[in-house]
């Protein structure tokens, strides 16, 4: 008997293109849920048709209509690369309650204050709720229009009626199209609604800002293609216990992606912080054991952050290693380096390391500051309030150079610090000191030399060090 031909694949994953003969809830290739849909019937080859606009030499393309205009919020303009670009599609994502709606309402009010018409579409709240927030934050403007809609057709109708320069949709997961299968927030709905809004924004030269939800692991909810459709992807971050909020650019077709904007969120609204350098420094005036100041880079902006450590003796067979705001894996590595190369043995001590003010110190350049804070807490001797430490520790105890050292030192000097321990630029400069930006900069090549220069070693530690 002749063999039967295998059935053709009737279903395909929207994310990775994996094919199957029957519908499944989870893609067998990329493991994404809800992305397997039925394939449409193959169409005939497309024929040439009329063009919307003629092709021109690139030098003759006008750029006046695509010049960025200020949003009225300097920190957001800094992240966007100059401001809001007409026709641009911006996606702002963040945790629930972090302040996304408050920030965009402030942007909408400031844009309307410059006599640019703004349409704010809310699908999560009623119009009255948004009006109450605008009353509290001072966002009542004549050119700011508000609509509570969840249907795509109604949103497009509002755009036709108001003809805004800025359209804010809060959020993309709440808007649905009646002629598209799936529930609001589903993969198909989000993709089709976003594509329709972006097409409209490009056609009418409207700046479009979409609010996006995030999943429990912090990634943007919905299909991955959503991030490819938009021009700018922003992440809004912040701890619930802190008023500080940060906007980071993950993707930006109009500017850099290594910028960060800082905001202060309170009951009166959200305010841009143009100089956030001293936010993470303790206001204590006297020197305290177990503290050290690090200089981290958030994007291109240097921020001074204080690291605190507490070391206590324990009788437990498994000492505790507790961290807050720092990477626990790096702290464990630093403890091993201190034991192996500096003779600081903490296997019978509980170690607690924390950053001040909710700062997240994930950059390797903070290694030396963490190490000095731990040793200071262990010995009960303060470093002093005028010392900063910059450098990445290697597994052999060496101090590695970090990027933008001059920018970090300049910021430390501006904040009034007087001394800095930094990685040596060459073997000939080890132990030498020089004056930069008002700082006495000391070059060190390893963690043991740094402890020796700061007077935090003794004869017993030298004998224990291999």
Automatic annotation (TrEMBL):
Q: Is this entry keyworded ATP-binding?
A: yes
Task: Kindly list the positions annotated as binding ATP.
Answer: 94-101
Task: Quote a single Gene Ontology cellular component term.
Answer: cytosol
Superkingdom, taxonomy of origin: Bacteria
- Keyword Nucleotide-binding listed? The answer is yes
List, in alphabetical order, the Gene Ontology terms for molecular function in this entry: ATP binding; ATP-dependent DNA damage sensor activity; damaged DNA binding; hydrolase activity; zinc ion binding
What Pfam families does its record include?
AAA_25, ChlI, Zn_ribbon_LapB
Q: Which residues form the RecA family profile domain?
A: 65-214
One BP term from GO: recombinational repair
Role this protein plays: Plays a role in repairing double-strand DNA breaks, probably involving stabilizing or processing branched DNA or blocked replication forks.
Give the family per the record. Belongs to the RecA family. RadA subfamily.
Record NCBIfam families: sms
How is this protein named in the record?
A: DNA repair protein RadA
């Amino acid at each position: 008997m002749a063999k039967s031909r295998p059935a053709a694949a009737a279903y395909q994953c929207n994310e990775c293109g994996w094919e199957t003969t029957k519908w499944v809830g989870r893609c067998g290739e990329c493991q994404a849920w809800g992305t397997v849909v039925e394939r449409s019937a193959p169409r005939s080859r497309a024929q040439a048709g009329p063009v919307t606009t003629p092709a021109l030499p690139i030098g003759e393309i006008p750029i006046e209509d695509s010049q960025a205009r200020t949003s009225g919020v300097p920190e957001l303009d800094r992240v966007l690369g100059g401001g809001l670009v007409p026709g641009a599609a911006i996606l702002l994502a963040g945790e629930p309650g972090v302040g996304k709606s408050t920030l965009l309402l402030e942007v909408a009010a400031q844009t309307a204050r410059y006599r640019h018409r703004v349409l704010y579409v809310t699908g999560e709240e009623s119009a009255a709720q948004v009006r109450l927030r605008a009353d509290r934050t001072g966002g009542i403007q004549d050119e700011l229009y508000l609509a509570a809609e969840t249907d795509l057709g109604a949103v497009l109708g509002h755009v036709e009626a108001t003809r805004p320069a800025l359209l804010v949709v809060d959020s993309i997961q709440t808007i649905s199209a009646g002629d598209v299968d799936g529930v609001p927030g589903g993969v198909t709905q989000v993709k089709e609604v976003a594509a329709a809004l972006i097409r409209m924004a490009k056609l009418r030269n409207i700046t479009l800002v979409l609010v996006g939800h995030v999943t429990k692991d912090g990634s943007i909810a919905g299909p991955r293609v959503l991030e490819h459709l938009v021009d700018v992807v922003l992440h809004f971050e912040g701890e619930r216990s802190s008023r500080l909020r940060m906007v980071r650019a993950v993707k930006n077709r109009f500017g850099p992606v290594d910028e960060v904007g800082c905001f202060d969120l309170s009951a009166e609204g959200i305010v841009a912080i143009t100089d956030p350098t001293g936010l993470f420094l303790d206001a204590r005036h006297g020197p305290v054991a177990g503290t050290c100041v690090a200089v981290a880079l958030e994007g291109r902006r240097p921020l001074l952050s204080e690291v605190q450590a507490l070391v206590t003796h324990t009788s437990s067979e498994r000492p505790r290693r507790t961290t807050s705001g720092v990477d626990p894996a790096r702290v464990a590595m630093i403890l091993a380096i201190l034991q192996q190369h500096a003779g600081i043995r903490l296997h019978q001590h509980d170690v607690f390391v924390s950053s001040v003010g909710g700062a997240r110190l994930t950059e390797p350049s903070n290694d030396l500051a963490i190490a000095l804070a731990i040793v200071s807490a262990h010995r009960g001797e303060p470093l002093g309030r005028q010392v900063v430490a910059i450098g990445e520790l290697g597994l052999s105890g060496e101090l590695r150079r970090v990027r933008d050292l001059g920018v970090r030192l300049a910021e430390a000097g501006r904040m009034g610090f007087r001394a800095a321990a930094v990685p040596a630029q060459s073997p000939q400069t080890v132990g030498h000191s020089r004056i930069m930006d008002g700082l006495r900069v000391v070059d060190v090549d390893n963690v043991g030399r740094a402890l020796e220069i700061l007077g935090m070693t003794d004869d017993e530690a030298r004998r224990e060090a291999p």
